[in-house]
Amino acid sequence: MEFGYASTPILQGVHLELAKSEVLSIVGPNGAGKSTLIRCINRILNPQKGRIVLDGSDITNLTRMELARQLGYIPQSDHQSFPATVFDVVLMGRRPHISWRSCQNDKEKVLDVLEMLNIEHLAMRDINEISGGQQQKVLIARALAQEPDVLLLDEPTSNLDIRHQLEVMDVIRTLVTEKNISAIMAIHDLNLGSRYSDRMVMLNRGVIAAAGNPYSVLTQENIKQVYGVEAVVKDEDGFPYVVPKSPVGNNGGVRPR
Amino acid sequence: MVNGRNYLVPDMLDEKVAAAGKRRAVLDEYESFIGRKIFFISSFILLTVLLCGISISLGPLKFSVLEVYATIFDKLFPNFFDVPELAPIVVWNIRLTRVVMGVLAGIGLAVAGAAMQGILRNPLASPFTLGISAGAGLGAALAIIAGVGIGGGGKLLLVGNAFLFSLIPSFVIVGLTRYKRATPETMILAGIAMTYIFSAISSLLHYFSDSDALKDVVVWLMGDLGKATWGDIYIVTIALVICIPLLIWKSWDLNVMGSGDEAAKSLGINVERTRIFVMMIASLIAAVIICFTGMIGFIGLVAPHMTRICIGGDNRFVIPASGLLGAAFLVAADIIAREAMAPVIIPVGIVTSCVGGPVFLYFIMRKKKEYW
């Protein structure tokens, strides 16, 4: 896939593969193109070149509505301009499946999804009045209401405290395993990514620098090359755990006197 | 497990019952939430009908409200009601047109305003945001001051000009979307630019006009329901009957677009096409109304907000509900316009802004939560 804004190429020659019930993390420094890649898959941005193939069929040219039945997108955060209840926001996720009126079945599905995420007690609250962690769960609920095959998450945990980070990641992991869907997430936190994903891709300036299972991607050498950071990679609970030490060569950092 | 038997079954049943109970509670709450909105709509229908009755009953020749309703139903069921002398002529030829136009204009402007606010995600949007008022003002100025424009002469010239010129800014903005993406920011800025251009040309005409024509233009700009004829009403009704269902059809998409263009795209909505479509329909409604009534401000901007304060932001209900609130408000404003300084009739646009301003301020002070 290739994509660029006007004159600046952002992604070049990126090729990804994902199996069912698998979680794929996309990591990389700021500006590497993680969010851009997610939004190209979803066709929120239109790539100049590239194809997306789902379950063997080419979905690059489907209508938006058909695409929305298969790909669920969870943005980093959402601001509602006018008041809306949590229930109504999640009900919006049913839009790809409804032509005119929502019926009882849709309301039941919304409730199913709310229960799955343990937020049914928030159903009638205004979405702008609940906490960031709860809002993120509502956005996940909305994407799940689409009954997608693949979840696309753009930095799902960047605004959350450690408890909510773990809760949200646990939910995603459980959904992937139990509902037989796949997930692709762009994520900043290397350790969360390694702990909760089956495979990982490291982007650097729009190209893939490393790919494979988290152990093979999160190596000292890769982190040094891509992030410009000296780090130590330990083993924690069977997952690679990255402890950053210092920037390499102090480029852009403060020079100690 | 005791003695090899599974005694967990009753517990599991309890859990299931509890869960089903919670679910029922949420669904019930949601249903009652919807019920409140429907109640709001029905009460406003009643209120509007009542205000219409009151409005028709007032004037140099006074009738009671019941006599008014009797006169109206008399057309449908002749000889069934006791109707006072002169009532039919006064009601049907003089007063009913004003009130019906008030209802239609109130509905149209409020609905167009609600749609514009939804599609531009901007609480300051009104039906006139995209330059319609400036365009109509120019059309009217051209007709009254210069006598040029499309259409024969007299009223047709004025109405035709106002309508066509009010739509020119919208067409220009839609044309621009071929070169720039139709984001709310682009459209609002373009609308501002159009307003400046058209206002400037109007002002030029004002500057060079004689005082009689100038007064006519200024008075037209203040808005008036009294000049409506049944022919005008038919045209406006047809436009509303076509356009409002279209907006209600798109109302759920408006809801989804409230979450942002990205979220809307991910949920299957063609954001740019929807935006242009809704904008054109709302502009059309506004244009059809103001070419007959002149500029009636405030309703398109504020009726949707007052509605949202009462029933929340779901456009499927806000669009029809603000229409009814707008209708009631405009008929009430017309009553005040006619009676405040009777027998002089104040232009209704002045009353809507004068009375509406403080009322809205009161609502803002009293509302409990932030809603934009």
Structural write-up:
The complex is a heterodimer of chains A (257) and B (372). Chain A has a six-stranded mixed sheet with strand order 6-7-8-3-9-10, sandwiched between helices. A two-stranded antiparallel ribbon of chain A has the order 1-2. In chain A, strands 4-5 form a two-stranded antiparallel sheet. Chain A is globular. In chain A, 44% of the residues are buried. Chain A has two domains: 146 residues, Rossmann fold (3-Layer(aba) Sandwich); 72 residues, no CATH class. In chain A, α4 packs across α5. Chain A is built from nine helices and twelve strands. Chain A has 257 residues and is an alpha/beta fold. Helix content of chain A is 33%, strand content 23%. Chain B is mostly helical and 372 residues long. Chain B has one domain: ABC transporter involved in vitamin B12 uptake, BtuC (Orthogonal Bundle). The longest helix of chain B is centred in the N-terminal third of the chain and has 49 residues. The N and C termini of chain B lie far apart (56 Å). Classes of the chains: A alpha/beta (257), B mainly alpha (372). Chains A and B meet through α2, β6, α3 and α4 of A and α1, α9 and α10 of B.
Q: Mind sketching the topology for me?
A:
The complex is a heterodimer of chains A (257) and B (372).
Chain A: E1 3-5, E2 8-11, E3 23-27, H1 34-41, E4 53-54, E5 57-58, H2 64-68, E6 71-74, H3 86-92, H4 104-116, H5 132-145, E7 150-154, H6 162-179, E8 182-186, H7 190-196, E9 199-204, E10 207-212, H8 214-217, H9 220-227, E11 229-236, E12 239-247
Parallel strand pairs in A: 3-8, 3-9, 6-7, 7-8
Antiparallel strand pairs in A: 1-2, 4-5, 9-10, 11-12
Helix pairs in contact in A: 3-5, 4-5
Chain B: H1 9-57, H2 65-76, H3 87-120, H4 132-146, H5 154-176, H6 184-207, H7 211-222, H8 230-249, H9 251-257, H10 261-266, H11 271-293, H12 299-311, H13 315-339, H14 348-366
Global mean pLDDT of chain B: 85
Assembly type of the chains comes to: heterodimer
CATH fold type of the largest domain in chain A: Rossmann fold
Q: Which class of chain B in CATH terms?
A: Mainly Alpha
Q: What's the N-to-C terminus distance of chain B?
A: 56 Å
Largest sheet of chain B: none
Number of helices of chain B: 14
Topology-level CATH name of chain B: ABC transporter involved in vitamin B12 uptake, BtuC
What's the Cα radius of gyration of chain B? Answer: 25 Å
Most residues in contact: chain pair: A-B, 46 and 37 residues
Please tell me the CATH architecture of chain B by its name: Orthogonal Bundle
The low-confidence parts of chain B are: none
Largest sheet of chain A: 6 strands, mixed
Order of helices and strands of chain A: EEEHEEHEHHHEHEHEEHHEE
**What is the H/E order of chain B?**
HHHHHHHHHHHHHH
CATH superfamily of the largest domain in chain A: P-loop containing nucleotide triphosphate hydrolases
Share of helix of chain A, binned = 25-40%
- Total domains of chain B: 1
Q: Categorize the overall geometry of chain B.
A: globular
Summarize model confidence as the mean pLDDT of chain A.
82
